[in-house]
Structures are given as C-alpha cells and as structure tokens.
C-alpha cells in the first residue's frame, strides 16, 4: 500500500473535499485518506468476510438454497461470484471500517499510479460521497447485516443513487434548475444489460439496481428543495426493493412490506436439522429468478 504525493497530493484531496461539500451541502467532519493498492481483491474479500462472516460449509448451504429458489445456477458459490464480479468492475471503493478510499493502482506502473487517470476525479467524487454519507448519516452502521437483506439493498440503492447524482452535480458545478431533467434523460438512456455475460442474473441485477434504479429513485426527491429531501431518505429510507422499483409505493400510496412470521419449522424436517440462514427476499430477487428453475 502506498500513496504517491505527485499523483494525488494532500492539496488536491482538500480541493475534492471542499468542492464536494459545497455541491452536496454537507460538511466533512473528518479527513478521508485515499490510498492506492495494486489489487483490490484482498481488501474486498476482507470487507465481504466482515459483512457476512460465514464459514465455508454455511456458504455452500446458502448458495444451494439460492439455487433451489432459482436465483443461482447449481454449483455457483454466491459470495465468490459476487467478489469476482465486484473485483472485475471496481476501480475504487470506500472502506467504511477503515474510513478510507482504496484505489486500484496500475500494476505495471510506479506504486501510487491509478489505472484510470482520466476517470479519477469522477470515481473519487463518488467514493468521497460515500464517506460523506457515513459521516453525516452513519451509513455504515445502517448497512450492517440485519436479517432483512431486501431492506438493506434498498438502502444501498439510496446511497449509490445519491453518489451517482452527486457525481453529475459535481461535474456541472452544482445543482441548477435544468440538471434534474438532464439527469433523467441520461438515466433513461442507460443500458440495462448485464455488465458481464457469464455473471448470474441475480448478481448483475443487484448491481444494476443499486446504481440505476437507485439513481432514478433518488432523482424523484431532487428538485427545488435541493438535497434536503434526499438527506431525509437516510432518516426515512425505503423499506423494500419494491418501493425503490416503484417510487409511488413509497411516496404517493405507501405500501410497506408485510412481515411474515414463521413459527417453529422443525416438524417439517427430519431430525437433526439446522437453520443456515434467515433473510428477507423482495421484488428484486423475485424478478431476478432464473425462469428455467
């Protein structure tokens, strides 16, 4: 791990901080270090392990359960597939535990040289927005595993959608009266096809949902009141992926999810049996189901 001051100086980082704070209307309460690593795989795997914390056997069982539900092909390991997917796509990410932004360095160049010079500003602004969300709204705490994965990914969609819109606002020098309409046109023209053809639809759909559906959802709240309605989404987040996919079920005709309580199921299974997981799957998962299952 190394940081090259000629590549990204402390002064340039402060410029990002100051301009982003002005555009987004939120103040940083702490410095956010930016570090470079030749490979993001190890860091991403550590984040996945901390978030999930499951043993190898439980991973196999959960992947098998998802296959039974038609969400994954048989024999696919969900966590390994997700890690492979995000490692191949990510140029940088915000590590909410270390409170720093990690950027992929060029493996063939000097340490501290980003792979993506021309896209560096956009990526840094996106990840700095996540740091800002953490400092302003305690986003990392809100995203800790809770047994309701559907509500968690709905909140992730708010965070990613917010960061996507902030990128554009930053590029255009801030909010103005024509920017929401312009962003709406850009999102409508975005390609919805999976990024990688060999990635299961369930994994690709989760990524696409967070960025595209999340941005479309958050955009509904960006208008004459500026970012204030967006900020309130962290206090009153959507409760399901259904509400993100159909914003009217959050805004106009609220349709909160109905909690289904299952009693002791031990009588349905031969003894001994062990519960390997307990989670909530919503509309996003249902529409990602493999039609051949």
Describe the model.
The chain has 293 residues and is mainly α. The chain has a domain at 146-257 and 279-293. 49% of the residues lie in helices and 4% in strands. It is built from 12 helices and 3 strands; from the N terminus they run αβαααββαααααααα. The chain has a 3-stranded mixed sheet, with helices on one face. A hairpin with a 4-residue loop joins strand 2 (92-95) and strand 3. The radius of gyration is 20 Å and the shape is globular. The protein starts with 9 loop residues before the first helix and ends in a 6-residue tail after the last helix.
| Average pLDDT rating | 82
**End-to-end distance:** 44 Å
Number of helices: 12
Broad shape:
globular
**String of helices and strands:** HEHHHEEHHHHHHHH
Low-confidence stretches: 1-6, 111-116
User: What is the spatial order of strands in the main beta sheet?
Assistant: 1-3-2
Give the number of DSSP strands. Answer: 3
Rg is 20 Å
Tell me the strand percentage band: under 5%
Properties at a glance:
293 residues, three-stranded mixed beta sheet
Concise structural overview:
By secondary structure, the chain is mainly alpha-helical. Helices cover 49% and strands 4% of the residues.
Task: Give the secondary structure arrangement, pairings included.
Elements: H1 10-24, E1 34-37, H2 41-52, H3 56-68, H4 78-89, E2 92-95, E3 100-104, H5 120-137, H6 139-142, H7 149-171, H8 179-188, H9 201-219, H10 228-235, H11 241-245, H12 283-287
Helix pairs in contact: 1-5, 2-4, 5-7, 7-9, 8-9
């Amino acid at each position: 791990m190394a940081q090259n001051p000629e590549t990204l100086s402390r002064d340039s980082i402060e410029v990002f901080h100051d301009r982003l704070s002005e555009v987004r209307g939120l103040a940083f309460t702490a410095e956010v270090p930016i570090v470079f690593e030749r490979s993001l795989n190890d860091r991403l795997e550590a984040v996945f392990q901390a978030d999930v914390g499951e043993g190898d056997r439980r991973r196999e069982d959960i992947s098998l359960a998802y296959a039974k539900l038609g969400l994954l092909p048989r024999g696919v390991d969900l966590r390994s597939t997700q890690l492979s997917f995000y490692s191949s796509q990510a140029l940088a990410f915000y590590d909410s535990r270390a409170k720093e932004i990690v950027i992929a360095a060029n493996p063939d160049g000097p340490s501290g040289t980003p792979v993506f010079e021309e896209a560096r500003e956009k990526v840094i602004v996106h990840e700095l927005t996540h740091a800002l969300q953490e400092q302003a709204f305690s986003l990392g705490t809100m995203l800790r595993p809770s047994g309701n994965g559907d509500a968690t990914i709905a909140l992730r969609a708010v965070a990613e959608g917010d960061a996507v819109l902030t990128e554009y606002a930053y590029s255009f020098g801030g909010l103005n009266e024509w920017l929401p309409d312009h962003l709406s046109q850009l999102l409508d023209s975005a390609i919805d096809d999976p990024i990688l053809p060999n990635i299961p639809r369930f994994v690709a759909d989760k990524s696409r949902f967070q960025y595209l559906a999340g941005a479309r959802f958050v955009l509904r709240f960006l208008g004459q009141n500026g970012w204030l309605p967006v900020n309130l989404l962290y206090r009153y987040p959507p409760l399901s992926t259904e509400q993100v996919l159909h914003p009217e079920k959050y805004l106009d005709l609220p349709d909160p999810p109905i909690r289904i309580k299952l009693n002791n199921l031990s009588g349905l299974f031969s003894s001994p049996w062990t519960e390997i997981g307990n989670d909530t799957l919503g509309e996003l998962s249902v529409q990602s189901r493999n039609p051949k299952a």
